[in-house]
Amino acid sequence: MAAPAPSAAVPIVAVPPPTAVTGLALKDFRNYGRAHIEAGPGLVVLYGPNGSGKTNLLEALSLLAPGRGLRRAALAEIDRDGGAPWRLEAVVDANGERVEVETGRDPDAERRFVRLFGEPARGQGALARTLGVVWLVPSMDRLFQEGAAARRRFLDRLALAVFPDHATTAGAYEKGLRERAVLLRTGRRDPAWLGALERRMAENAVAVAAARRELVNGLNRLLLDGFGALPRVVLTLEGEVEAMLDAMSALDAEGAIRDRWRWLRDADAVTGGSGLGVHRSDLVVADAVSGELAARCSTGRQKAMLLAVTLAEARLRQARLGDLPILLLDEVAAHLDGERRERLCATLVDLGAQAWLTGTDPELFAALHGRARFLAVEEGRLHEHD
């Protein structure tokens, strides 16, 4: 008896390859006069001595996302000594389509320009709608010992990779916060003007808090499953606005925030800030098994926790948006023993995202030989691994 023909009602859906930077050209960027890299969709290992320019390449890639990049540097600080304003061009394969991205410092306006396919983009938010970029760098090793501001930046960067408009909303909230502070400080307290400003701020505050809450809930579901040898982690979001959303609707929360801001105007005029808002929230990270706070764990375990959160974010973006972010992992193997490095390499291969890893010795990533592209970096020059 002949086998039945396949049903025509079941379409064959082509899954696009993961988002990847396939070409990167730099001009007058840090220690690079000119540089060009071609890469495939998989893993890229950059190795070389400290100070050779590995992290500079990751910084260039991080500027394919909105914001100031992984170093949070002022635009002019990125210019090569004695060079022209920095510039980078990238070819990105996103959702099966080729996207041409240009960005750099505009010397006339002292701002960062962004162009897609040679045409000016409508703000940096266009980058977030094109691709997601997430990074883990050594400066984040003390994230759990630093103040809450650093953890909020980390959280909002993760949110940006899942909610592309998050940066725009957060930026509008911060702008409103500054405008309100100026009005209160100068005594220009027109009730209608302040009320309209606080209404917009409340809307943006609730949107920011809602995105953060949804992100944390999604990450926690993935983190409880674990990532190989990495620790299981649980995240908790602490903040008054977030707590309001636990107890009431978004509309009621907006009203409650407006009422509190009216009551706080005199106190906020003295402090120059605001005693209420999503700019005061914090992210608490703990071991899901022992309950030990990340701040009390060893440096190596803290880094492993951050790595677990970063990989969970990649999976969450894939589930929500259908693609994976580009991962930038600077000196990621520095605090891992040989077995954990091998497991990390296997996890990255299984994840399928394009990841750029750096290290001083290529043997740190020996498990990736034959499965990643190795590039040696020396004094701003690159060449293929022998």
User: What structural class do the secondary elements suggest?
Assistant: alpha/beta
Tell me the helix content.
25-40%
Shape: globular
The largest sheet, given as strand count, sense and whether it forms a barrel, is: 6 strands, antiparallel
Distance between the termini: 57 Å
User: Tally the helices: what do you get?
Assistant: 9
> How large is the radius of gyration?
23 Å
Overall mean confidence score, pLDDT: 90
What is the ordering of alpha helices and beta strands? EEEHEEEEHEHHHEHHEHEHEEE
Sheet with the most strands: spatial strand order: 2-1-4-5-6-7
- Note poorly predicted spans: 1-14
Question: How much of the polypeptide forms β-strand, as a percent range?
Answer: 15-25%
Number of strands: 14
Brief digest:
By secondary structure, this protein is α/β, with parallel strands linked by helices.
